[in-house]
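Our consortium's second objective concerns turning raw sequence data into structural hypotheses that experimental partners can test. To show how far this objective has progressed, the report includes one record in full. It was chosen at random from the queue rather than selected for favorable results. The single chain below, 134 residues long, was entered without modification.
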Amino acid sequence: MKLLLDTHIILWALDDNPKLTGRARDLILDVENDIYYSSASIWETTIKYMAKPDKICISGSRMSDLCREMGYRMLPIMDEHIKALETLVYHNRYQVHNDPFDRIMLAQAKADGLKFVTHDSKIPFYEESCVIAV
């Protein structure tokens, strides 16, 4: 299975954080799975690190280096991913979801036939079959 990891899943996996669920850990460690990280995750981490280095323990460039060392594959943002954004519908009228990084990663997974691994409680409201909520 091809898995695209949400930013927080990557950070937890790299740090061996106890927040990483057993299911997520099993998916990542399964040698049958190909693990991808989005260039959007690097961008997101860089922005957050630059704004609040005391809150984010790793820079985007360091995250990218560690992902490559772990054997994760980088997924760049392409035109077909931008187009897939237009197909995403958020099905929760009581709570908005304004995270552009989450949306582009979800669109990437959908467009490329990957499974998007996330712990974000808002992502399942897109009702996309590519989501694996852990």
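The partners drew two points from this record. The mean pLDDT is 96. The chain has one domain: 2-133. Both points have been shared with the crystallography group to help prioritize constructs.
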